[in-house]
Structure of threonine ammonia-lyase:
Amino acid sequence: MVRSPHEHITIRDIWEARNRIKPFVRKTPLIPSTGLKEHTSSQIHLKLENLQKTHTFKIRGAANKILSLSEKQKELGVTTFSTGNHGLAVAFVAKELGIRAVICVSRKVPTAKIESIRKLGAEILFCGNSQDDAESMCYHLQDEKGMTVVKPFDDPFVIAGQGTIGLEIMEQLPRVDTVMIPLSGGGLLSGVALALKTNDPNIRVIGVSMETSPVMYKSLKAGKPVVLEEQETLADSLLGGIGQNNRYTFQMVQKYADDVILIPEKDIARGIAYMLREHRFIVEGAAATSIGALLDYRFNHEFQEAVALITGRNVDLDVILDIAHSHL
């Protein structure tokens, strides 16, 4: 990406990201879900980013950002604030490139994600009880140590990296008419929607979030970024604010999201149980939001060929065991 970061992100940036990150990512499978087809009377396909390296889509954006840095920036190291998955992705890429990484997390990040980050050799700093607390520490490290902050979502390189999923979907299912995307800070939806709608503006993009602390949803309703107190949810990867000074994703989600759906915790649990029972996949709560929405059919329109993004599988085993016990 050679243009100024103040300019709009384009499909060219996503193609450049695809070439840049190719050694670091997998082209993940797109599979049909027979059970969801029977339930909805539509063809439902699952984009399995749970099979991605680090078991989450986040490596796409993290790799694109870190690989774009100068040698001097790499020498000084990188830092990020994360609900877990983005930190895991940054730690993985940093280890591959021999770069120092400091991951700032709140004390609400699940143990499974913390241990995975630690195993990759990254330094972990616990910072308060919210994503905002972790973010503040990152910028302190930037000011004091000269480290580069790899933002989880509101960065053009990160958005372009996530957008490579959209290119893969178009290759794997050219007739796709609807894509359901877990929605938090909006980096994933922004990039994927840009890739999809550049190819076909009629493709519908649906954001799906939890009823608990849905910051982007509330921000869209308010017409500006808002702050919400974080609350416990199975979709912990979707927690965190979008930033009062959000520069990219808020406007992109406003532009590209055809609808945003909220689902309760019980439907997230149903989605996790469905993926375990029908597809034998362990997925985290955020990844199950679209499945939960489909099982309860919370959509305002019909579709023929839909894709649900299964975004990750980094979840504490106790959560899976509890859901398996109560739902299977």
